[in-house]
Inverse folding.
């Protein structure tokens, strides 16, 4: 059986396609002679790391990130916008589409540019 610590670096052609994870959102990058901290020791052979691929911006992620940056809870945001907490959760999890009235209210409370939010919502 091969051990992670005994494996040497594997040569990879420069123009070879890199493997992508099963979910399709991560790219597996082989590391040759780079160090990775494992607990308190360093390992420098045949290790791979995962790098996230860039995603298309989504309105739900945009709104959630804005809320978190402003240190607002779902309850606080719901109260300021004048909707239920369930509505905020549904919008942030991309379960329900926002109406323009609610989108404008969210942008006003979160201090986001409405034009940018509408562009993201349109796809």
């Amino acid at each position: 059986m091969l051990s992670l610590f005994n494996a040497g670096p594997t040569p990879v052609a420069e123009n070879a396609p890199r493997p992508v994870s099963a979910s399709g959102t991560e790219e597996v990058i082989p590391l040759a002679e780079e160090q990775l901290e494992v607990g308190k020791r360093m390992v420098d052979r045949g290790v791979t790391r995962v790098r996230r691929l860039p995603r298309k911006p989504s309105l739900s992620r945009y709104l959630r990130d804005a809320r978190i940056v402003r240190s607002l809870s779902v309850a606080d945001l719901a109260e300021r916008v004048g909707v239920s907490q369930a509505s905020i959760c549904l919008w942030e999890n991309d379960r329900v589409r926002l109406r323009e009235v609610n989108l404008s209210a969210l942008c006003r409370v979160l201090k986001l540019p409405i034009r940018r939010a509408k562009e993201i919502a349109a796809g």
User: Anything to note?
Assistant: Residues 4 and 115 are 50 Å apart (CA to CA). The helical segments are 59-69, 74-81, 85-92, 100-110, 114-122. Strands lie at 26-31, 36-38, 41-43, 47-52.
